[in-house]
């Protein structure tokens, strides 16, 4: 909005309309998140009051967070699955699986992305990109059972890496292709091996791409639900999304506890939006339109 | 010569781990699942030890002839038809707002991207709490604004459930459309817009005859991607209307194709039929996605 020019009534109306639209966009995007956060720090009495008017809690409390991490069974469906550590193990599993899968994907993607177009295998991988996990789900379940990988974090990591690989190899390759060829050639002529050239010359230049791959992979794995829903069934491997779905009771939901658990699940994605927006948005958008 | 050889070997070595993983966990199960779709495999009928029989394309015939399948396709299409226009409209409006220069632009951009970053499962849960008939925020807000006099159960009717599933999906996905359209808006050369303005065109005219045509390729990309994403909707429905808790009956009113697929395989254990259904969904969603892409190329983008 160029504001320096003279304010005619028409311009004033246009400007007012613009700000109304901008505020509406902010409200639409943020209000649901705000409501969950408010729910998570409200007392049950305030939250369940009718008609509701505690949009800013009068007595904000962190008790829901304490409860949800320590007295799990109180909030479980009918209390028939006692587990005070359910949320704790969810955080642990989500963090471990997302971090390790993202690390593996970054490593494999830089290796394979660097040697793109050099072999038949690479074309096969490109061919595979549109294949979603659910067309192989049934045989995959049997395979994972035979291998003893059901309900293990290792199994989840293997699946996320396998199904993510084509996308991230492609993504990494678009970044590596942008690095200047001649620096790399110079290093090779000086007697560096391919791997050494990759490590010392290409990767530093393609680092933003690597960061992007790591963050997008982390976020995708953290947010995933279908794969862990099918391939996990206990605290040994269930990530936060699956734990959260278990909080939806058959007869009732303890919304203040549920909200606290949801806020915990939302923290890494929101941190990414705040601090790494550039990397993540670019990576996600590129990956989607591929 | 030797140099090339060793290079070739390093290249294979670098790609080998990915290739092995793909062969093992993607290729093999995909083919094997397809083959299972040609059998009557069902552990409930044959027992865990029993063997399935080859029955050709009968599973596909059974699926294509079943009312349940077409009902779920219809529900999915309804969701897609609600989501795509709403999402692209909101995405375009948001992109046009962010295309202006104003104070707080970076903050607004960050805020608008948040819903896309969150797990879709959590978004479905968030909306189910907002829409809760006893204590939900929507009731509280509308009551306080004197727009309603009693609390409503927003998810009471089947059509309302589909509608709110679409709203939650739009909320989750509109930032994607926004990002794609914003990139396209920013690549429009300013002198073209300026020239139209100098010629006395009004903003609405400029939008219709200059901006919009230049946005069309980006629109097509967003449409194709979002069609495939929405056709395969699962997480949002699971936490918003499907019922959720283990062992619970799956809500029939929002049974989109992916939910039906889950039910056939993991509740009914009808593995043969489920495999066939998975490939039918793939063909349906990719087929229409392919049509969008063809449209895109024919426009010369």
UniProtKB/TrEMBL annotation, chain B:
PANTHER family (UniProt xref): BLR7065 PROTEIN, SPERMIDINE_PUTRESCINE TRANSPORT SYSTEM PERMEASE PROTEIN
Membrane topology: Multi-pass membrane protein
A biological-process GO annotation: transmembrane transport
Residue ranges of the TM segments: 12-30, 73-98, 110-130, 162-185, 206-234, 276-297
Major location category of this protein: membrane
Kinase in keyword set: no
Ribosomal protein as UniProt keyword: no
Entry's Gene Ontology cellular component terms: plasma membrane
The ABC transmembrane type-1 domain, residue ranges: 73-292
Annotated compartments: Cell membrane
SUPFAM superfamilies: MetI-like
Family as reported in the entry's similarity comment: Belongs to the binding-protein-dependent transport system permease family.
Any one Pfam family match given in the protein's UniProt record, by short name: BPD_transp_1
Protein name per Swiss-Prot or TrEMBL: Sugar ABC transporter permease
Entry keyword set: Cell membrane, Membrane, Transmembrane, Transmembrane helix, Transport
